[in-house]
């Protein structure tokens, strides 16, 4: 939170706060804690109504569950959500604004919260916080003018238990606010001498505000010499903004290598590398990284078009760059003046799958989901 945001906390505004959860599915005034059935009913059998009767939902295999449906204008301010780690790459999180049939946000659940490898990493940032063990929080402002829908699709072969709460405000003027978009793309592996595309063919006026990448190195040696490039508006062959290296873009330097420690995790308000998965000598043969960069103080503004891509480069003999064929999965966030945009095709379960040895294989037994 900035100083300006803190100053606004004392300002009186004619808006109201609402919250949707399994204890109040539509956010109705006085509607919380009224459930008489739900996933906690048996646990509350000695206590009765009002005692955590419906704290969560079960989403059947292959089903899509509507987390929230909000009519009218408003702004989502906070999302808290949790489920078991096995589900972080088998759930697709979507958001639809103002009655659109196409989602503005379509991202794997874990990747949206900077945990793309199905293993927990603590994230302490301004807009995303991931806390032990899998308490995911989003503070991205999500305004809308006539309605909003949030959904989760379960692509796994087993039911998934999810706990969540969506807090939002209504009653304000959001007519001049842009819509939040989030897009996921994966190159697995990246084609030879090709760049990984983060955003392509987006038209309209807006600002690019954030990047998360789950980066898997498919070769030995350093992997982060590649530049990120932002092609804005009339840019064609060459971009207006060109970075100097992958670790530079994510706020680090010199291979993220603290002498004597090697790759070193860090998490700050605007940027970080909170996750380093090291080889274990068995199934985890390659190194994996999770990195984020939020353009909150420095949004990248465009007025007509946007394209973003990143190179994957290492080193070869004679101090020459080595084009790499790594596993790169990116989540890109931007605000746009319209509720829909050109987006990649919806990923399949196979597109999302993480290969991390035996721990990546879900438990398909009959053990019931536990309370968080």
Automatic annotation (TrEMBL):
Top-rank lineage group of the source organism: Bacteria
Which Pfam families does the annotation name?
DUF2961
- The annotated region (Disordered) lies at 340-372
* Record-given protein name: DUF2961 domain-containing protein
